[in-house]
Design a protein that fits this description.
- This protein has two helices and nine strands, in the order βαββββαββββ.
- It is of the alpha+beta class and 107 residues long.
- It has one domain: HesB-like domain (Hypothetical Protein Aq_1857, Chain: A, Sandwich).
- A hairpin with a 5-residue loop joins strand 8 and strand 9.
- The chain is globular and about 35 Å long.
- The protein starts with a strand and ends with a strand.
């Protein structure tokens, strides 16, 4: 379904461990919005929903809802830490176009 780089795994583990409440994983979703029509959403989750697909990458659980699953198929998620800032970067082979900021895309 999707792949996490070692940098993304470390960042997600750090966020889960730093959470005030117990979290089982990170939800990654695709929603409407952004410059190009679709954008990525991410949030820590305490539990999976019954309809979620749970992808385990190097011990980290990623929760994906059924509506986002097709658009996240084949995606690689990285965590970049540079002088310009830090954050998650998505490489999506399903995107036909993406905006300059890299935060949104169209399919």
């Amino acid at each position: 379904m999707l792949t996490l780089t070692p940098g993304a795994v470390k960042a997600i583990q750090r966020f889960i461990q730093g959470s005030a409440d117990p979290m089982i994983g990170l939800r990654i979703a695709v929603t409407g919005g952004g410059c190009s029509g679709l954008q990525y959403g991410m949030r820590l989750e305490p539990a999976a929903n019954a309809e979620d697909t749970v992808v385990v990458c190097d011990g980290v659980s990623i929760l994906v809802d059924p509506q986002s699953a097709n658009m996240l198929n084949g995606v690689t998620v990285d965590f970049v830490d540079s002088m310009e800032g830090s954050g998650f970067k998505f490489e999506n082979p399903n995107a036909s176009n993406s905006c300059g900021c890299g935060k949104s895309f169209s399919a």
